[in-house]
Amino acid sequence: MSGRENVAANFDRPILIMYLLLMFMGWANIYSAAYDPEHASIFDQSKEYGKQAVWMAVSLTLGAGILLIRGELFREMAFGVYGFVILLLVAVLLFGKEVNGAKAWFSIGGFGIQPAEFAKFATALALSRYLSGLKALVDTRSRVISTAIILFPVALIMLQPDTGTALVSGAFILVLYREGLSGNVLLLGILAAVLSVLSLILKESSFDLPFTDKVLTGQYFLLALITVFTVLGWWVVRNVVVKRERKRFYGLIVVGFISSAAFIGSVDYAFEKVLATHQRDRILVMLGQKEDPQGLGYNVKQSQTAIGSGGFAGKGYLDGTLTKFKYVPMQSTDFIFCTVGEEWGFVGTAFVVILLTTLILRIIQISDRQRSRFTRIYAYCVACIFFLHLMINVGMTIGLAPVIGIPLPFFSYGGSSMISFTILLGILLRLDAERLSQLR
């Protein structure tokens, strides 16, 4: 068999090594975070680390099976997989088990399956299949369809509701940008983020108008600022732009003003009607707009304390006092990074971040060497998903992002996320292994 045809010889070994290393490091840290001396066996099925061992076995078996499947089949079945996951998301709303206020789980024995996690690779496959059939993402129709592919699962996930998992879909915006979406869209996204933060910061504020006894609420004050900038922009266009170009700029200014005003109103509606009370409180505490007398930011404070107490080299494995005595809520799931920080210190946290960053950079490198447009786009989807998970999870454990419940890849306890990340990488490895025989 020639090297070109020998798919097994072309598997990317660095990805495989990093995948296995991250998985077993995560398992070891879950053991530490949930350690119970009365159930010391790491395979004890009554504890999270024992259940994680089962999920690891399932993931490794599933990953090995994926590597045996012909790569072209993933492209052919992309829309079918997407449709099946959509059905699962609908089914969980009807028949799922409610956990912590979210109807997002199927209960199977003592284990739970979260279909929303599978939406990541399903959307990545469907989006890659659609975009690979286009020359470029330049017309309105292709943009609308691409956006619909991304947002349809998001809408169903928000009905559960599961804001954290839904936000992961924001990673696909970077993929659209790489495939030809105008940079102006990213600029608009940044402006929308700025407006959102300003709107929330000013939400409970009020401002006295000079020379009057009138008072403006924070959001009306923000609208007044936008109005001032709109008038200023109009004046600049009138006095700087040549006459034949003014009409177009006037139109952009009017659209920008109306859109900004509508967006500010939508932020307030989404904040009050879509987010749960604890999510609103966490965001306001993080922005400094709400006092924390009842410990709304308790998780983050304890996480920061645990990470800081680890110092440079950490307290040692199984010797983390805050971890051992369960001072940090959700320390084996969303806040697993604080266990790494307390027990392994700066050295350990830096190693984990560098290892995950190296994995992401390696995936991007794999993307750039593909002949198949489908594989290239899919690889970039995978990289963006891992990037967003890393940034948000680490950010929320050190207080730089709101607590929204996004797992740290391969570290946080959970079978659904473990399987989802394994499938993402397994498909990528199989597709990449066939790159020498691909012509598209």
Rounded average pLDDT: 82
Cα-atom Rg, whole angstroms?
A: 24 Å
Distance between the termini: 23 Å
- Range of strand content: under 5%
Envelope shape: globular
The SS-based structural class is mainly alpha
Order of helices and strands: HHHHEEEHHHHHEEHHHHHHHH
Q: Please count the beta strands (DSSP E, at least 2 residues each).
A: 5
Strands of the widest sheet, in order across it, are: 1-2-3
Q: What this model shows, in words?
A:
By secondary structure, the protein is mostly helical. It folds into two domains: 7-198 and 289-437, no CATH class; 204-282, no CATH class. Helix content is 66%, strand content 4%. The protein contains 17 helices and five strands. It has helices at 13-33, 48-67, 71-76, 78-95, 115-132, 140-158, 163-167, 171-178, 183-201, 218-240, 243-274, 277-286, 298-309, 321-324, 336-368, 373-397, 415-433, and strands at residues 97-99, 102-108, 111-113, 206-208, 215-217. A three-stranded antiparallel beta sheet has the order 1-2-3, covered by helices on one side. It has a two-stranded antiparallel sheet with strand order 4-5. A hairpin with a 2-residue loop joins strand 2 (102-108) and strand 3 (111-113). Helix 5 runs antiparallel to helix 16. The longest helix is centred in the C-terminal third of the chain and has 33 residues, at 336-368. The radius of gyration is 24 Å and the shape is globular.
